[in-house]
Amino acid sequence: MRRLVLMGVMAAASAGAGGAARAQDRPPLLPTRDVAVDYRATAAGRTTNIHVLYSAGTERLRAEAAGQSTYLIIDGQARTAHIVMDRQRSVLDLPFDTDRWRGFILSDRAKFARLGTDRILGVACTEWKVSGPFGDGTACVTDDGVILHGAASGEAPDGHAGTGSIQAVSIHYGPQPDDVFAIPAGYKTMAMPTLPTMPAMHSRQ
Length: 205
Description:
By secondary structure, the protein is mainly β.
């Protein structure tokens, strides 16, 4: 379960928000269109494939590592986060904390600086230098708020340092069905353990 959370945080889509964000010269903080992205994520010497789904209308995100029956759901409007474990038919409710989940939701406290432009998978993106409370790096983000490539390093408040990188290997825009973001009926809620804050936000070197 911890591996899913770590790899998911390194691999998910970015966050963003229209005109006000652009006026401050920063990337969108949430995707503005429904999208599905497959990433290759590397952290702590391990590489994992992550599948991410995002619904712009409901601000919900689902991230799951290949070959696992555990996945993460974040609801931006309800400000909730859950780890769903199909094998155990259980769900773990987590606090909605933008610093804890900053791989999914870029903090509005971070500082951004434009570095240039790129094209990945035929899609244009802007490269940004990202500096935040716990880490630094760069991210190539589309105009509609999807991170296509990134790398970061940083240190969590508990003192653990970390580095990681992500690479989008496919991107598909289109409506996402509501049921993929729903907690399955009948799943038991588990007590929440204490989880460390993740060490770095999305970025690219």
